[in-house]
Every structure is written in structure tokens, then in C-alpha cells.
Amino acid sequence: MNRLSGQTSPYLLQHAGNPVDWFPWGPEAFEKARSENKLMLISIGYSACHWCHVMEHEVFEDFECAEVMNAHFVCIKVDREEHPDVDHIYMDALHVMGQRGGWPLNVFALPDGRPVYGGTYIPKQSWLRILDSLTELWSREPDKMFEYAGKVAAGIKQLSLFDGEKVASFDPEVIDKVVEHWSGYWDRIKGGMRKAPKFPMPSDWKFLLTYGSLLRNDDALSFAFFSLERMGLGGIYDHIGGAFARYSVDEDWKVPHFEKMLYDNAQLIYTYAQAYSINREPLFLRIIEETTSFIESEWKSQQGLFFSATDADSEGEEGKYYVWKLEELNALLGEDMSFAGQWFSLSDKGLWEHGNYILLRDPDEVHKLSESGLSNDVLMDRYEGLRRRLSEVRSARIKPGIDHKCLTSWNAMLVSGWCE
């Protein structure tokens, strides 16, 4: 076990058995880097992150990688939820370097902490090449690294500057122009933005709902309603247990990145409540109730606070807890399989990989069921019956791990959502 074994963060404890000589964030690591004149690696992630797990298995558990890292770098592991300040600075650094952000966030820095290189997930052979290149450059041309670090630091500082004196007044027409420009990126076929991956982005919908309501902009309102509906029908939403996964890897909201985060779901409860207060869409109310049920049953601590996240992986596989084989569903549901197939899109639309199906709802099938002559009450009773049976079987599986940190800010978001 390395020095992370004495930490309380679930993410840091996941790395306590690595052969890497990890330090937690703190003065000890910086003192070692200064005294030994070594570059630093600041590696940031969180316990429920699938690609953090992948990089740990491929790189940080690998003795060849660890040997190079321990010899030439001071290596620091950071839980982004314990140190959002650290995560924010180094994520800004990555953007200044012209790269997309994400986790795991791996940033190499001078002994004083100023960043010089960074990336997200990096496979083993690329990682070893980066370690060698940086070690060589630090040995032969440290001045180049100091010069670049200065430019990155200046860029980070520029991102943080805001001159309040220049915003003495505000023209409401600016909002109209921003929305008009923004609407050019809306995916009016599938909801959300026209790109993959797709994130729930509750702040976007909260803004459009407020803007559309106050200024009676029907286009903004209808697009927000449409996007919230498509998200709630897609595989990004857990139709058996409730609550949303962190994002969808595709444009159809079909294949989730299976971890569930409290801050996402807290904000989405708020957003769906705001939407329901405007249009009384039954789907929105059901999402609120099911997500609330999940949070209270899975994340509530003995102290009445709520945990941070549920992992994407179980038994070493992403999404294993959530997906189904067709033969498994046939054996379980029997004569109800026909209805389940229509309700949960058990066709090519629901097929994922390795013969696994993600439960989701096809908008076309939703329309057909609504026109089938069965009342909504009958349809919902049959759905609840399916949900109970599938939930019983799924709960017997090995569950993904839970991050038991209770964060004040995320709990406050949840309280706000429930108040709304």
C-alpha cells in the first residue's frame, strides 16, 4: 500500500494499492518536488469515473509505468470533489493548452505547480512516451518549460479576469441575440445540442424555461420541453431504478456513461419540476418521483445527508448492472415480453454490444402505445408491473460501488430541487 492508504476519499483509496508513489494534495508533495527538482504529475479524477478506472488498470497499476513515474516525477492524486479548486485551475490550464477537458485529468507541472502539459485518458505506450519526452526536456532545456509555464499561467489568469466597471448597464436585447445564435446549434430532431457526447446540461434548460416563460418565447419553451422529453425517454435515464447517468456517448441519448452523480440529478429534479409547473407533462412528474426514490433509497446516509455518486462499473465492466440479454428477459417476463419489447424498444434500437440491451423508449413506440386504445392508467399499471419484476431481479446482481462522500454544495442543490 502507498501513502494514500491513510486517506478517506474513496477515489484516493482506489489507488492506495498502486505501485505509484502517490502523494495526496498538500505541502509534502510540493516540498519534495522543490527539494529534488522534479516535475510534478497532478492526476485528478473521481471514484465513479469509468475512464479513470481504465487508466488505473492500464497505467497506474503497471510496474513499468510506475517505475518511470517514481524515478522522475512527484505524483499527486486528487479527488476532484474534495478539491474542486485544484480541479478548476488545472482544467482551465488544459483549455488554455487547446485541449478538451474531462477526467481523468492528468497535468504535468513545474516543481512550483505551474502546468506545462496535460491530457485526459492516455493509454500506456503513449503515456511512457510522454514521460520520456518530458524527462528529457526537463533535463536538457528547462528554460523552455519555464517559458511555456509562464504563458499558460498568464492564460489561466486571463480566464479569471472580469472588469465589473465595464458592465454598468445591460441591454435585454443581448439575450435575444445570444439565444438566436445558440438556437443554430440545437438538435431539433433528437433534442439537446447537435453533437456527441450529449450531456443533460440542466442549466441550459432552466435558462430556456425561464426565458421562454418570461418573454413568451414559444420556440425556446418547446425546445426545452422536447429535449427534456427525449432525455427522459432515452437510455441515459434508468427506467428501472430512476435517475440519470452522467451523459450519453451518442447523439440519441441511447448509450449512457453509466455513472450517476448527485449534482446532475439534483439539478435535473429542479429542472423537471420547473418544466412540470409550466406544462403538467406526466412524464416529467414521473421522472421527478422515480429519481427522488432512487436518491432516498440508494444515497441517503444514516445522518440524513446524501452520497455523491454511483460507479459506472461493476465486476470490472461498465454498465453490467444495467443491461439485459434478450433470453434473460424472455425467461423472466414470459407472456409480458411482447409488451415489454414495445415499451422498452427491445429491437435494434435498444441493442448495444455483446448482445446486451439498454432499456429505453422509442418515441415512435410511445406514440403507437398511446394510440393503441389502452388507457394511460392501464399502460402505467403494466409498466409498473414490469418495473417491479425487473427491479427485483436486478437488485440481486452485484451493485456498482457508491462514493459515500457527503458534499454540502451537492446536498444544497438537492434541497433546492426538492423545494422547486
What characterizes the major β-sheet? Answer: 5 strands, mixed
Strand proportion, as a percent range, falls in 5-15%
Cα-based radius of gyration, to the nearest Å: 24 Å
Low-confidence stretches: none
Ends: how far apart? 46 Å
Overall pLDDT level: 95
Give the total of beta strands. 14
The percentage helix is 40-55%
Described by the principal axes of the CA atoms, the overall outline is globular
Strand order of the largest sheet: 1-3-2-4-5
Note the total helix count: 17
Structural class determined from secondary elements: alpha+beta
Write the SSE topology.
Elements: H1 10-14, E1 22-24, H2 27-36, E2 39-45, H3 50-60, H4 63-72, E3 73-79, H5 84-96, E4 105-109, E5 115-119, H6 124-140, H7 142-160, H8 173-182, H9 202-214, H10 218-233, E6 247-248, E7 256-257, E8 260-261, H11 262-279, H12 282-298, E9 309-310, E10 313-314, E11 317-318, E12 324-325, H13 326-333, H14 337-343, E13 356-357, H15 363-370, H16 376-395, E14 402-403, H17 408-419
Parallel strand pairs: 1-3, 2-3
Antiparallel strand pairs: 2-4, 4-5, 6-7, 8-9, 9-14, 10-11, 12-13
